[in-house]
TrEMBL record:
UniProt keyword annotation of Transport present: yes
Gene3D superfamilies in UniProt: Outer membrane efflux proteins (OEP)
Pfam families on file: OEP (PF02321)
Top-rank taxon: Bacteria
Signal peptide: 1-26
UniProt-recorded Gene Ontology molecular function terms: efflux transmembrane transporter activity; porin activity
Alphabetical list of InterPro entries matching this protein: OMP_efflux, TolC-like
Keywords for this protein: Cell outer membrane, Membrane, Signal, Transmembrane, Transmembrane beta strand, Transport
Name of the protein described by the UniProt record: Outer membrane protein TolC
One GO term describing the cellular component: efflux pump complex
Main location: membrane
Species: Mucilaginibacter gossypii
Localization per Swiss-Prot or TrEMBL: Cell outer membrane
Family classification: Belongs to the outer membrane factor (OMF) (TC 1.B.17) family.
């Protein structure tokens, strides 16, 4: 039984050396899962679509500085309405009659007075118009705002990624914790089953009473139930982890061999400059500055130019007489608007003050979060060190009780107590180890220190 114990509990001896091992950060399998999760997560994909939309909006804003060419045509058919009366007959018929008499001919016909319709009848006008802005402050500010909105959405995507990394790492550590707890229960089950076998044999040889056998059976049932619960916990943790990285829920998960504490330098410092929340507020402040400039742009006149190339005539004629061009320059200056523009400026200034106040509040909030996370990790490390001490003590205690029990110097209840203490110590050491990594992940999120590959 002593040889079996050494073989079954070998992993505990490794755990007992955790405190002496140097901290490591390399977790290649977890890093691979993080990359897969960032590449396949549906929420991030949705945010990338929004980013793509903002990029196109920026391109649209830039294109507004270029020329626009439009084609337009009109055709009118009219009858009735106002006319201009021109007395052609009254003016020329007398002269024409005299000329016909002098020339003894009818070369000069009699004319009718004209009634010219003001509305054009059977008339078309077709043209290409090219317009180009020369000075328009609204377009300048609009382009700046669109560019900053692209930066804002990039930061939003980065924020989603950072939160996803935290969730993936936490889920990974919780799954690892559950898997290793399952292993501890499986090892414990073999231990209590062996104890049941030995106690049954001792009972058959009248070395112990029936109560010892019944307690052994109860321990087997208890560990079996705990093992079933641990397996279900591991299964649920696997489902959630696979969900985060967008894989089939039942896919297996490869685990890194984590036997050391995370680096402790994260326990120091108050640097939260890497938080995307603050970056978003800084960009929002810049956008607000340009919105203020946009509101004030009414004091700058707008100017532009245009040229028309077209043709207009009656009866669909197209010739050198119908073709034309028209060139012009426009100027627009808002001189009076009943205070609407000044009110817009005051609104943007008020928004800027609100953003400044919000930035101070969020900065203090994030700093408080970092301090809380650092305290949590300090507590987790203390729990881990205590668990390691308890693990060593309980293992020694259990080994001593095994020897005493074999020599008949200890009763079974004492051996059972030592055994349960040892099992609990293994579980606590396993929980404490992964709790330190979960706390470390929370600090990474709180100070934005994890490097996300673009």
């Amino acid at each position: 039984m002593k040889t079996n114990n050494k073989r079954k509990y070998g992993f505990v001896l490794v755990a007992a050396a955790l405190l002496a091992a140097p901290p490591v950060k390399a977790q290649s399998r977890l890093d691979d899962y993080i990359r897969d999760g960032l590449a396949s997560n549906q929420s991030i994909r949705q945010q990338n679509f929004v980013l793509e939309k903002n990029v196109y909006a920026l391109k649209e804003a830039k294109s507004m500085f270029g020329p626009d060419v439009t084609f337009s045509t009109t055709y009118t058919k009219a009858d009735g309405g106002r006319t201009i009366d021109f007395p052609t007959g009254d003016l020329f018929n007398g002269v024409y009659s005299t000329l016909n008499k002098l020339t003894n001919s009818n070369a000069f016909p009699q004319l009718q007075n004209q009634h010219i319709l003001l509305n054009p009848d059977n008339f078309y006008d077709a043209k290409f118009r090219t317009t180009l802005p020369i000075l328009n402050a609204e377009l300048i500010y609009n382009k700046r705002i669109k560019a900053q909105q692209v930066d804002l959405q990039k930061t939003e995507v980065q924020l989603y990624k950072r939160e996803l990394v935290k969730e993936i790492k936490t889920a990974y550590y919780n799954y690892s914790k559950a898997v290793y707890a399952t292993g501890i229960y499986e090892s414990s089950l073999r231990l209590v089953e062996e104890g049941q076998r030995i106690n049954t044999k001792l009972f058959d040889n009248s070395k112990v009473n029936r109560t010892v056998v019944l307690r052994s059976q109860n321990e087997v049932s208890r560990i079996n139930a705990a093992l079933t619960g641990a397996k279900k916990t591991a299964e649920s943790a696997r489902y959630y982890f696979n969900f985060l990285i967008n894989r089939p829920l039942t896919d297996s998960i490869l685990l890194d061999d984590i036997t050391t504490l995370p680096a402790r330098e994260q326990l120091l410092g108050n640097n939260i400059s890497g938080r995307e929340e603050l970056a978003k507020l800084r960009i929002a402040k810049d956008i607000n500055g340009n919105l203020t400039g946009l509101a004030k742009s009414y004091i700058i006149p707008k100017s532009g130019t245009f040229i028309d190339l077209g043709s207009q005539a009656f009866d669909w004629k197209f010739n050198s007489q119908s073709r034309y061009y028209l060139f012009g320059v426009s100027l627009e200056w808002n001189l009076f608007s009943s205070g609407k523009n000044s009110y817009r400026v005051k609104q943007t200034i008020a928004d800027g003050q609100a953003l400044a106040s919000q930035t101070d509040y969020v900065q203090q909030q994030l700093l408080t979060e970092l301090k809380v996370r650092q305290t949590t990790m300090q507590s987790a490390i203390a729990q881990y060190e205590a668990a390691q001490s308890q693990l060593k003590t309980s293992q020694t205690y259990y080994n001593d009780m095994v020897k005493l029990y074999k020599q008949g110097m200890a009763i079974y209840i004492e051996l059972l107590d030592a055994q349960n203490q040892w099992i609990d110590a293994q579980l606590n050491a396993n929980i404490a180890l992964y709790d330190t990594w979960i706390a470390y992940t929370a600090i990474e999120r709180a100070n934005g220190s994890f490097t996300i590959q673009q």
